[in-house]
TrEMBL record:
This is Oxidoreductase. It comes from the Bacteria. It comes from Parapusillimonas granuli. Keywords: 2Fe-2S, Flavoprotein, Iron, Iron-sulfur, Metal-binding, Oxidoreductase. Residues 1-91 form the FAD-binding FR-type domain. Residues 220-307 form the 2Fe-2S ferredoxin-type domain. The keyword Flavoprotein applies. Transmembrane segments: none annotated.
C-alpha cells in the first residue's frame, strides 16, 4: 500500500524468468479485473526488464475494477493483461514539464525515470492533498533526479505553486505533459489557454471523463449497421452502441466506457457522428471517420460501422 487508497502491484510473467514485452514511458496495459477490463499506466522505469508496476487508486464510486484489484487480488495470483500500448508518448523536446495531479503521477513517474536515463532536462510537479495521500514519497525522495521533483500539497499552502504559475515561468519551447482527475486536467488546459501556450506542446492523458453536459434524456433512437454482415440493429435512447451489439453477440473491446481511453475506437463508413468522447481531437472528430461506440451516438437515423 502506497497510501490508504493506492496499492502498488508488481507483475511478472507466469513463466519465471520469461521477459515481458518492452514498453516506453507513458504506456499502459489493460488488466482484466474481475468482470471489468481496466487500463493502468506503467509506472516503473522502462529500462527495468522483466516486470511491470502499476498503482491502482481505489475509487469510492468504483464500477468494479479498482475494488476488485484492492479486495480480491493477492500475491501469487494470475492476472490476464494486454501488451503495453502507448497513447501518451514523450517527444524529443529539450526540456519537459511534468504536471501530476493525484494518481496522475503514475505515467509521469515513468517519464521522469526515462528522461533522467536519457540525460534530458525536465521538472516534475506533483500535486496531492496531503503527505498521507502522496504516493511514491520514499521513491521520489531517494531518486537520482530528486532535485527536479517539486511536491505541492493542499495542506501546506505556503509550498503550493499552482500549475498555471509553473507554466507562466517556463520556457515556451518546453513540452508539457499532464495527467490527473478531470478538474486538474481542465485547470491546466484553461491556464495554458490564458497564457497562449502553444497547443502542439501540450500533451495530456485522462483517467476518467468530465461530467457530460448534454441531457441524456434527449437521446433519440437510431439504427446501426455492421458492414461485414449487413446486420442492422436499433439503438434505443438509454443504451449505447456497444451494449446493443453485445446483446447480439458482437463484442467490441471496451475499457473505460466513457470515451476516454480509445479502446473501442471503430471506423465509420456512413452516417453523421454525435461525438461524446474525450479521446479524439476536434480535428479527428470533424473527419467523421471513427467513433467511440461506448458513448458516442448517431446524429441521424442511421450509422454504418466498419466492423
Amino acid at each position: 500500500m502506497l497510501t490508504d487508497d493506492i496499492a502498488l502491484f508488481e507483475l511478472e510473467a507466469e513463466q519465471h524468468g520469461r521477459p515481458l514485452p518492452p514498453f516506453e514511458a507513458g504506456a499502459h496495459i489493460d488488466v482484466q479485473a474481475g468482470d471489468a477490463l481496466r487500463q493502468y499506466s506503467l509506472c516503473n522505469a522502462p529500462e527495468q526488464a522483466g516486470r511491470y508496476e502499476i498503482a491502482v487508486l481505489r475509487e469510492p464510486a468504483s464500477r468494479g475494477g479498482s475494488r476488485h484489484m484492492h479486495e480480491q487480488v493477492r500475491e501469487g495470483d494470475l492476472l490476464q493483461i494486454s501488451v503495453p500500448r502507448n497513447l501518451f508518448r514523450l517527444n524529443r523536446a529539450e526540456h519537459s514539464i511534468l504536471l501530476a495531479g493525484g494518481i496522475g503521477i503514475t505515467p509521469l513517474l515513468a517519464m521522469a525515470e526515462s528522461l533522467h536515463a536519457q540525460g534530458r532536462g525536465f521538472e516534475l510537479h506533483y500535486y496531492a492533498r496531503s503527505a498521507a495521500r502522496t504516493a511514491f514519497r520514499e521513491r521520489l525522495a531517494a531518486a537520482p533526479f530528486r532535485d527536479k521533483v517539486f511536491l505541492h500539497r493542499d495542506d501546506q499552502p505556503g509550498e503550493h505553486l499552482d500549475p498555471v504559475q509553473v507554466l507562466a515561468a517556463a520556457p515556451r519551447a518546453s513540452a508539457v505533459y499532464f495527467c490527473g482527475p478531470p478538474g486538474f486536467i481542465h485547470h491546466v488546459q484553461a491556464g495554458a489557454r490564458s497564457l497562449a501556450w502553444p497547443d502542439d506542446t501540450l500533451h495530456f492523458e485522462r483517467f476518467s471523463a468530465e461530467p457530460a453536459g448534454d441531457d441524456a434524456s434527449a437521446d433519440t433512437e437510431f439504427s446501426v449497421t455492421v458492414k461485414s454482415t449487413g446486420q442492422t440493429f436499433l439503438v434505443p435512447a438509454g443504451k449505447s452502441i456497444v451494449q446493443v451489439l453485445a446483446e447480439h453477440g458482437i463484442d467490441i473491446p471496451v475499457s473505460c466506457e466513457q470515451g476516454v481511453c480509445g479502446t473501442c475506437l471503430t471506423g465509420v463508413l456512413q452516417g453523421e457522428i454525435d461525438h461524446r468522447d474525450q479521446y479524439l481531437t476536434p480535428e479527428e472528430q470533424a473527419r467523421n471517420t471513427q467513433m467511440t461506440p461506448c458513448c458516442s451516438r448517431s446524429k441521424g437515423a442511421s450509422i454504418v460501422l466498419d466492423l
